[in-house]
Amino acid sequence: MNLTLKVWRQPGPQAQGKIETYEAKNIPSEASFLEMLDIVNERIIEDGGEPIHFDHDCREGICGACSLTINGIPHGKDKAVTTCQLHMRKFADNDTIWIEPFRANPFPVIRDLIVDRSAFDRIIASGGYVDVRTGSAVDANSLPIPKPDADSAFDAAACIGCGACVAACKNASAMLFVSAKVSHLGHLPQGQPERDKRVLAMVRQMDSEGFGNCTNQYECEAACPKEISVDHIARMNRDFTKAVAAEQFA
Questions:
Q1: How many CA atoms lie within 13 A of 10 on its CB side?
Q2: pLDDT in tens, 120-163
């Protein structure tokens, strides 16, 4: 396959970026999108140029690091896949492909296609955990959990925190991510003691990071590689409203 790449290049967070054009020649159709970039980078380096900087880790659709916007769509046009799982056979020979970083103010560009998603880490640190003393927790298998609750918790816990939901949303809302992290603990007995505290802390941290509001257009669900449902957003909104009321009348 022979392709034309339009790639966002930005040497640093404070630098002005621009789109540059690269020819990707003789790309195997069985290569993944990241492997295609590897091939292009090898040729750029051989010619004495600066390789295209992009993020990656597991390359198995688990870590969420491969956050690229491909032809305007986070992770590309295939549903329920991350960029590293997108293969070049999904494109046509002589296609022009536009590759940009995830666009959102809370995700500042570090370099080229790499963005800083530490805002997600701070949201998790604010309340996305269960407080127990090491060695004192009851074995999880000894706690009976209704199957619908277990299934819903598992579905929410599938979120890998890639940020595609934010990049797809016109408001750069992180509601799908935060609701998944709130919901998977809120469905389980271990998460009940801190349920109100958790949702208050995580939603307020999300707001302080500068993420926008949800306007229920579901771009987040459509772009999510793990197909997290927007039902979790509704559940989080109910939990947040109850927690605010309890806080005011405590």
A1: 20
A2: 999 999 999 988 777 776 776 788 899 999 999 999 999 999 99
d(C-alpha 199, C-alpha 181), whole Å? 9
Q: Using CA atoms, how far apart are residues 57 and 117, in angstroms rounded to an integer?
A: 15
Question: Tell me, what's the pLDDT at 136?
Answer: 74
Q: What span, in angstroms and rounded, lies between the C-alpha atoms of 21 and 187?
A: 48
Q: Whole-structure pTM over 0.90, yes or no? A: yes
Summarize pLDDT for 199-249 with one digit per residue, the tens. 999 999 999 999 999 999 999 999 999 999 999 999 999 999 999 999 998
What pLDDT sits at residue 249?
87
Q: What is the DSSP letter of 161?
A: -
What is the per-residue DSSP string for 194-241?
A: THHHHHHHHHHHHHHTT-B---S--HHHHH-TT---THHHHHHHHHHH
For residue 200, give every residue at least 6 positions away whose Cβ sits within 8 Å of its Cβ, in sequence order, or none: 127, 240, 243, 244, 247
The pair of structure tokens assigned to 221 is 């669900």
pLDDT of amino acid 52: 98
> Cα–Cα distance between 162 and 64 in angstroms, integer?
4
Tokens 């934010």 correspond to 166
Task: Name the token pair of 44.
Answer: 């750029």
**Tokens representing 213?**
């509001």
Please list the residues that pair with 70 across neighbouring strands: 73, 99
- What is the set of domains in the chain, with CATH numbers? 3-111 (3.10.20.30), 117-248 (1.10.1060.10)
What is the rounded distance in angstroms from the CA atom of residue 67 to the CA atom of residue 107?
11
The residue to which tokens 């816990």 are assigned: 157
